[in-house]
């Protein structure tokens, strides 16, 4: 991972979370800390302000602007629903015969969240960004809250054409990517998690979310927020079930995590690293003074990390016996 290790501001992995990972058996070369370029006050008020800002941005996207992107043309495609699976809409760019990379958005969100990454598709790559079931142009009209069902829909897309892919998941898209890798290992050659939720203990709901789920209230809200709230209300249960299957993942996994993430606390990275015991390789990149939206605010680092994952991941071999 040379480019990340020599990234401006890179520092020895000696912070407390990094030390915990290494004490748990991770090789030092697989735990990287990207140091902050500047030091700022970090008292309780600053932490509260960050928390409020990230929650506001997650709903409104205010203040989240992608840097200038490439010139690859985007094409919209739709996979019809079949066998009980919803119709799936997605954007694609790059070489249709190239190596597939699938991007999975968070909640709420849609395929266009990843459009700058698709426009930067390098030669030899076929980049796809999906509208997860229940979002964007994908069906159904009702929310799909079960992670295995979301994974099945994406698996159907990969089986229909692109084939085995490196999968990138941000925020809620992270557990969807993990579920896909655990349940359909023959379709996943690598996983990049960006601020991914994973630890069920850290998922809590607010009374306002219960209120928003009432029909009298939800009928007044935009569809993406209604579906997002439905997902988050049961996410703890879904992550508990996913935790029983994470150990089955074999493809290499890289975890990219902002240490100032207030939506998905950095401890999620440790939870994952401790459970990804069967992967070909696990790597953790911790970013100081960085929050939740790394794929927008630190997109160059995400691209660097993805490039290294692609270099070390291979197309998976024959699928093992069917998983129960």
Offer a few descriptive terms.
disordered N terminus, Rossmann fold, 10 strands, single chain
Folded structure, characterized:
This protein has 324 residues and is of the alpha/beta class. The chain has a single domain (2-37, 54-312), classed as 3-Layer(aba) Sandwich (Rossmann fold). It is globular, with a radius of gyration of 19 Å. Strands 1-2-10-9-8-7-5-6-4-3 form a ten-stranded mixed sheet, sandwiched between helices. The two termini are 35 Å apart. α5 (147-160) packs across α6. The protein contains 13 helices and ten strands. The protein is 36% helix and 17% strand. It has helices at 2-5, 16-23, 44-60, 115-119, 147-160, 173-183, 207-212, 215-218, 223-233, 235-243, 267-275, 294-297, 299-312; strands at 10-11, 31-34, 75-79, 88-94, 99-104, 125-130, 165-170, 188-194, 253-258, 282-287. Keywords: Hydrolase. InterPro entries: AB_hydrolase_1, AB_hydrolase_fold, AB_hydrolase_sf. One of its GO terms (molecular function) is hydrolase activity.
Mean pLDDT across all residues, rounded? 86
Number of contiguous helices: 13
Helix/strand class: alpha/beta
Number of strands: 10
How far is it from the N-terminal to the C-terminal residue, by CA?
35 Å
Q: Secondary-structure map with pairings?
A:
Elements: H1 2-5, E1 10-11, H2 16-23, E2 31-34, H3 44-60, E3 75-79, E4 88-94, E5 99-104, H4 115-119, E6 125-130, H5 147-160, E7 165-170, H6 173-183, E8 188-194, H7 207-212, H8 215-218, H9 223-233, H10 235-243, E9 253-258, H11 267-275, E10 282-287, H12 294-297, H13 299-312
Parallel strand pairs: 2-10, 5-6, 5-7, 7-8, 8-9, 9-10
Antiparallel strand pairs: 1-2, 3-4, 4-6
């Amino acid at each position: 991972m040379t480019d990340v290790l020599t990234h401006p501001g890179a520092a020895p992995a000696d912070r407390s979370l990094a030390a915990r990972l290494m004490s748990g058996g991770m090789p030092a070369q697989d735990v990287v800390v990207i140091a902050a370029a500047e030091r700022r006050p970090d008292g309780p008020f600053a932490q509260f302000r960050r928390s409020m800002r990230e929650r506001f941005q997650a709903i409104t996207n205010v203040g989240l602007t992608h840097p200038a992107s490439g010139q690859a043309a985007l094409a919209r495609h739709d996979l019809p629903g079949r066998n009980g699976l919803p119709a799936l809409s997605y954007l694609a760019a790059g070489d249709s015969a190239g190596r597939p990379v699938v991007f999975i958005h968070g909640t709420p969100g849609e395929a266009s969240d990843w459009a700058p990454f698709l426009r930067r598709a390098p030669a030899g790559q076929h980049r796809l960004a999906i509208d997860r079931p229940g979002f964007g142009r994908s069906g159904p009209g009702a929310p799909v809250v079960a992670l295995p069902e979301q994974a099945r829909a994406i698996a159907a897309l990969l089986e229909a054409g692109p084939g085995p892919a490196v999968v990138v998941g941000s925020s809620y898209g992270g557990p969807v990517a993990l579920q896909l890798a655990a349940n359909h290992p023959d379709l996943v050659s690598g996983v990049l998690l960006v601020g991914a939720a994973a630890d069920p203990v850290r998922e809590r709901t607010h009374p306002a979310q219960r209120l928003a789920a009432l029909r009298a209230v939800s009928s007044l809200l935009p569809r993406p927020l209604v579906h997002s709230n439905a997902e988050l209300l049961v996410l703890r249960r879904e992550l508990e079930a996913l935790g029983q299957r994470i150990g089955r993942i074999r493809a290499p996994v890289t975890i990219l995590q902002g240490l100032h993430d207030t939506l998905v606390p950095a401890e999620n990275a440790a939870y994952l690293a401790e459970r990804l015991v069967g992967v070909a390789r696990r790597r953790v990149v911790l970013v100081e003074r960085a929050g939740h939206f790394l794929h927008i605010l630190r997109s160059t680092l995400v691209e660097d990390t993805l490039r290294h994952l692609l270099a070390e991941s291979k197309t998976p071999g024959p699928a093992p016996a069917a998983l129960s």
